[in-house]
Amino acid sequence: MDLQYSSDSESDTQEPLKPPESFLFKYSETPVFRRKETSTKRTSHIYLHIPLSDEQYALLHSLAQKFWDELSQRCVLNESVTLQETLFDELTETPKSLHISLSYNLTFEDDQKLREFIALLEENLPLRTPLMVGFSGEIRLLPSLDKSKQFVALIVDQETRNKLRSTVELINHHVPGNRDGDNNIRYDPDLLHCTIGEIHQKDLQFSAHLQPVTLAAASVMASQGRRKTPLHQKEARGEKKPTQQAT
């Protein structure tokens, strides 16, 4: 009885079954149709980057505690309210870098619009870093845009405000036209500050005058998603390092 077994030596071979057509569409190197293309918005935030030494962290931690003590004595706080410092990274056990916001979050239609904005800032940026920034000694509660919490803010002094104003105004002039929730809002130069803590209680107003502080800002930064990159300064790109003459 012939059971119709075949072997590799036989000349007639069976063709393999073709995969489903949907499988071919999914893995084809040449697309059989174009998917509907949608632009993806991009968000950025412009700020001054201020690294902290251990000594500077200790000073700011002390000021935050003094502010909290005065606030607790003079204001009625909810029982659950505490000062949440933003100065220390528990994961790395190192002081966090601080920043002075020069803009709110800015939303752009796509990567190209964001790149054009960054290029424009780099071409016209009036601010040069590194830069010494002074804080007046006033620590004030500033509400978040959604009013859900208060930032414990070191307010910059008048000299620093004057240094930063033209940069903030440049950014404000080129803020994308369409407001996107709390994004694409022009920043008020009179509110330039550095956050050192948060308090989660609404409708709370308080300020205290403590010790003036001076810190060094290393660079102007732009966040692009999770990436944070320094803005290239036009003059800095054109500068040449001095050559040493042989003696």
From TrEMBL:
Residues 1-20, 221-247 are annotated as: Disordered. Transmembrane segments: none annotated. Residues 232-247 have a biased composition (Basic and acidic residues). GO terms for molecular function: nuclease activity. It holds the Pfam family HVSL. InterPro entries: Usb1. One of its GO terms (biological process) is U6 snRNA 3'-end processing. This is U6 snRNA phosphodiesterase. It comes from Ogataea parapolymorpha (strain ATCC 26012 / BCRC 20466 / JCM 22074 / NRRL Y-7560 / DL-1).
